[in-house]
Amino acid sequence: MDKWRSIPVNALYIKIIYALLALAPLSIQSKGQSYAVIGQSLSRDSSAYQYMERKKSEDRYISQSINGVPYKPERLSIAFDSCIAFDPFRVSKLHFLNGLDDSKAHLNELTFSRMNFTSLLLSEVAHVDKMFFQICSIEKANVYNVVNPLTLQFVQTNFKDFSISHSKFNMLSIQHCATDTFTCKKSMIDTVTIRDEVFANHVEFSQMTVKLIDIKDLKAYQDGGQYTLSFKASKFNEGGVIDFGEGARKITIDYCIIGGHFYLENLPGTVEFINNLDIANVIDLRNAVRGNKVCHINLRGSSLSNLQIDYDHFKLYFDSTATYSDTISVYERLLEELKTERYKPDVNYMKFDVDFKKIGYIHEGRTILGFMDNVWWYYGYRKYYIFYWTVVFLVCFFILNTIVWNNLTSTYVIGYSTKRPKFYRNRFYLKQWVRFLLDVMIYTILIFFSLKIDFNKLSLKRRGYVLIFLVEYAMGLGCLFFIVNFIFRS
Asked: For a disulfide at 206, which of 55, 185, 420, 447, Cβ 3.0-4.6 Å?
């Protein structure tokens, strides 16, 4: 230790550096020279300390007394700038001595700037208030077992793989960064901030407890790519804002408890909002999709009482694991919610109900009946279609009756009937055709809108024409029934 006594550095600083790097193999390289700290010894001379830059605003680490009573030293900030770390670089179990009674003290801020890490391990960091990484490159970062609340901040830092687990944070802040994969599991965080053009491939929060979340301006990690974002089995105590920005392909919110006011903006094309039963306040998604985009949303197993969506921007969809009972359960609960006062007047009920009926017809194998229900009166929502169909049937039967006129009038006689004239090009026969077509129209209308048949006038000799007559009569009765129903229910 004689060598160290000659070093012109405050002995208290040496004490701090020993404690900081006691368990962390580190290589510090600058101007072509390399210095390694292993255990509590330095392999070279004191010039290594020149590259551990302290922030100008830090408080001096001194011992003082007030009226003879020992005074604990102020907190420190230590910065590593433009250094290169051995692999792996580990920061764990940090102990700092206060210089008076060798009790543990806190480091105010530990900063790493312009450094490259192949593997960064942060664990059991109990005596640091804030760790700050700026303009760094980290191939793989693993943060776990951070027992005391820590502020962890990354700015302009690139990651390949970033994972956090079993930790506590006052704040987790990621800004102007890029990460291929980010996972955060089984941790408690007061505030999560991910914003200002953070590029990602996949971001996942699992089994988390978050007080407030603020995510904005996420973008795809690669040009032309898309990212995914998922929250699973997590709790949001005071809600927050998630703006999915550009390039989102799919988001998943699964088995989460959502407290406070929760805002979702710029939703992507696919949203899995499933198994979320505890939602404290209304989540209004009606303005969460911009432009004319359509978002396919899966609501299986979620509470819908505090969720507002609109049909113009959302379509329900179900993944391959959903059963038919899951599907009808979502539709039935959604339709019940759409009947409440907060949705009236609203066309969403009709549109979702139509989809529900289509699914029912397909599941039961009654596609033809479903087609008829659709074209006849749009599943009961467009009863005025009956007037269109009445005109269509009258025109069709008029054309048919013109063709089979002579045989049809001999099957069922109404007063007198003219014979169908022949085709001649003169004024006399033109008048005959006009009179004939008028008679056919009257005859068709009388049959179509008749309430009863005089069987004394019905001849059964030609059964084919009898069938034509009965079909026209039955179709007319059906149209009359729907017309009367429409009038009295309007």
From this structure: 185
**What is the separation, in whole angstroms, between the first and last Cα of the chain?**
100
Whether 436 contacts 418, CB under 8 Å? yes
What are the extents of the domains in the chain? Answer: 385-489
- Rounded distance between C-alpha atoms, residue 261 and residue 481, angstroms: 52
pLDDT 10s digits, 17-60: 444 443 343 333 333 222 222 222 222 223 333 333 333 333 33
The residue among 111, 81, 83 whose CA lies nearest residue 27 is 83
Sign of the alpha-carbon torsion through 104, 105, 106, 110: negative
Strand 41-42, strand 33-38: pairing? antiparallel
Residue located via tokens 């129209």: 441
Residue with tokens 């590593």: 80
Integer CA distances (angstroms), 450 to 27, 108, 445, in order: 101, 95, 8
Task: Return the minimum-mean-pLDDT range out of 78-92, 136-150, 190-204, 314-328.
Answer: 78-92
The string of DSSP codes covering 15-68 is HHHHHHHTT--EEEEETTEEEEEETTEESS-GGGGGGEEPPTTPPP---EEETT
- Structure confidence by residue, pLDDT tens digits, 179-194: 889 999 999 999 999 9
Distance from chain centroid for Cα 389? 43
Residues in the chain: 490
Are the C-beta atoms of 173 and 201 separated by less than 8 Å?
Answer: no
Q: Do residues 221 and 178 lie in contact, with contact meaning Cβ atoms separated by under 8 Å?
A: yes
User: What's the predicted TM-score (pTM) here?
Assistant: 0.70
Please give the radius of gyration of the chain, using alpha carbons only, rounded to the nearest integer. 40
**pLDDT score at 149:** 82
Q: Which uninterrupted H or E stretch holds 451? A: none
Whose CA is closest to 253, among 285, 222, 224? Answer: 285
